[in-house]
Amino acid sequence: MTEQYGRHRWVVFGDLNWPSGQEPSSVPPEWHGWLHCIRDSSPATMDVAYPIYHVPHHANKTGTPLSYAPKGAWQNSSKRNWKKVHVWDPASAATSA
């Protein structure tokens, strides 16, 4: 046996215009099961029924200017424009209640 176990199935990406040339999250869940030998029948021969809550796939934008940057991250355009600590004023608390 000259092959490593589990190395007989692979993906040929159709769109190689991604910054790294390939994007692993573009493999649909139904093909993931076949690719990792969880099931033997390929989804091309199966009728896949999607649940009501199924949403279309969105590409992973990590490493691009469109990547997610949470509040306070250096990549976020509004870096640190909020107050972390607010001083409690008992007079304003009494009037607002």
TrEMBL record:
Record's keyword annotation contains Electron transport: yes
Pfam families in alphabetical order: NDUFA12 (PF05071)
Location of the protein in the cell: Mitochondrion inner membrane
GO biological process, one term: response to oxidative stress
Keyword field: Electron transport, Membrane, Mitochondrion, Mitochondrion inner membrane, Respiratory chain, Transport
Main location group: mitochondrion
Gene Ontology CC entries for this record: mitochondrial inner membrane; respiratory chain complex I
Membrane association type: Peripheral membrane protein
Keyword Mitochondrion in record: yes
InterPro entries associated with the record: NDUFA12
Role of this protein: Accessory subunit of the mitochondrial membrane respiratory chain NADH dehydrogenase (Complex I), that is believed not to be involved in catalysis. Complex I functions in the transfer of electrons from NADH to the respiratory chain. The immediate electron acceptor for the enzyme is believed to be ubiquinone.
Family: Belongs to the complex I NDUFA12 subunit family.
Name used for this protein in its record: NADH dehydrogenase [ubiquinone] 1 alpha subcomplex subunit 12
Species in which this protein is naturally found: Coccomyxa subellipsoidea (strain C-169) (Green microalga)
